[in-house]
Amino acid sequence: MTETAAIISVHNLIKQFGRFAALRGVSAEFAAGRFHVILGDNGAGKTTLLRALAGLAHPTRGAVSVLGKSPRQACRDIGYMAHPSLLYDEMSGMENLKYFARLYGISGDEPCAQAICAVRLDPALARPVGQYSQGMRQRMSLARAILHDPKILFLDEPFSNVDVHSAQEMVRLLKGMRDAGKTIFVVTHQAALVEGVADEFIWMQAGQIVDRTASFNQHTAGVQRT
Q: Which of 127, 183, 189 is nearest to 162 (CA)?
């Protein structure tokens, strides 16, 4: 697959929660090896789209293709970082990753240590995750998402409640992963952090994609920003 090939295709994607349509006929293709940023107001459908692409939200209608398969079939190639860290506070970082490693059939300490080192934390740190700073927690959550070396990463508000230095460090980590060939999707309200790093900004409004630009500042006039 070339760098510019479509790694994900979406056709007429609709997701309803009762009478509320969170996604309303989204159709799009997303290129491989690129850093995609999804923007929009609260309720625009950003997280719902991210979860649908990752196979965590089943569409009411329409189809999602990931690497030519359904998201569920492509799950080994997908890493997902939810808005909450979903870590066990009473366990150390290494203990957390060893637990999740078993879910992927990964054995031994080395893959867990490599994932922790990749996000620039210390695998030997015995402190419980509950005592981590928010920036450390977010990086450990990212380590969990990359533990099985997925081709595609979906991150929901990874910079939330993180200090500026830690957020910039995470952006550098994600840039390095993109440069190494991974495809990255980030939902964020902090677009300025990734300006100059992201390859594409995807603007959502009322459950639809309303604009796609190579730069945050190229956004079409008249469409509301985050």
A: 189
